[in-house]
Specification:
Layout lengths: L2 H25 L8 H10 L5 E3 L3 E3 L1 H24 L9 H20 L5 H20 L5 E3 L5 E3 L7 H32 L4 H25 L7 H33 L3 H22 L1
Antiparallel strand pairs: 1-2, 3-4
Helix pairs in contact: 2-7, 3-5, 4-5, 4-8, 5-8, 6-7, 6-8, 7-8
Length: about 290
């Protein structure tokens, strides 16, 4: 690199650094108007900040986020089904390859953890994983909505609301229970019910992981020395990591437990193997 380019680079870096320092000083202390205790409490419970739902009810912002993310999925699925899937080819294009890669990833996860019954499981964990990932990324867009108190709020991730996390955990547990009923009847139900704490652990794992990122970002914003630039980096990194990790963790746990409750008993497996052996002998005898 020439001396001229080095000089230009140093000047640009110095200008950016001065601009950042000026921004830090001019933004002031973010926590002067509201104590940090109140900020953290409202981030968890949403007691003060409510959003009106069609003028009928005052609800948590996470519910509005859930409706918007669900609508995004519905519209995207409808457009993909009508305009793209009929044009899929043997040699896939970029969009087709991306869709097939995503579907194949969750199908492989389902078949590897539940080899005996995985058709519906693959569809569910694909939906759940995509919802967790997109729902978590959604908060990065900073969609502003008016609150009932007269201000505005940036919509959080749907699962940062404890009700949304509980709903996802209970839904996953019901899917596991349905697999046990279809696969092993009463025994499958008993195997599922013995893990009665599973929906609680799934719910609080989602809620705690996603909320931790929001709380860390709130703490960073609260202090003047780091309230101008660092929160952007911290918020993006925490959000991306939680989106990937939590989508993988929930889909992995769901497929593992689903595979356990749908696994046939040893007697049934032995009987099926004996039946297959007799069938092969009969076929061999018929050939010769």
């Amino acid at each position: 690199m020439s001396k001229k380019k080095k000089t230009v680079s140093l000047i640009v870096f110095a200008v950016i650094l001065i601009a950042l320092l000026a921004g830090i000083v001019l933004t002031g202390h973010a926590g002067e108007e509201e104590p940090i205790k109140e900020v953290m409490r409202d981030a968890v419970l949403h007691e003060k900040v409510k959003v009106s739902l069609f003028g009928l009810f005052d609800v948590n912002p996470g519910l509005i986020s859930a409706y918007i993310v669900t609508g995004i999925f519905f519209i995207f699925s409808l457009i993909t089904r009508i305009f793209f899937i009929p044009r899929f080819k043997i040699v896939p294009g970029k969009f087709q390859a991306l869709i097939e890669k995503a579907v194949g990833l969750f199908d492989d996860l389902a078949s590897s953890n539940s080899p005996h019954r995985n058709g519906f499981l693959g569809a569910y964990i694909f939906t759940a994983g995509a919802y967790i990932f997109v729902g978590t990324i959604f908060e990065l867009f900073g969609v502003q909505v008016p609150t009932t108190s007269g201000g505005t709020i940036s919509l959080p991730a749907p699962l940062a609301d404890i009700n949304g996390a509980i709903g996802m955990g209970v839904m996953s547990y019901l899917v596991i229970l349905s697999g046990g009923i279809v696969g092993n009847k009463v025994k499958g139900v008993l195997n599922t019910l013995k893990d009665f704490s599973l929906p609680i652990s799934m719910s609080f794992r989602l809620f705690g992981a996603l909320l931790s990122g929001a709380l860390v970002t709130e703490l960073v914003y609260y202090y003047m020395a780091v309230s101008f630039v660092i929160p952007v980096f911290v918020g993006v990194m925490f959000t991306l990591l939680h989106a990937l990790i939590q989508a993988y963790v929930l889909t992995m746990l769901t497929s593992l437990f689903y595979g356990e409750v749908t696994e046939p008993s040893p007697k049934k497996i032995k009987k099926n193997k004996h039946h297959n052996t007799n069938h092969e002998v009969e076929r061999y005898e018929n050939q010769y």
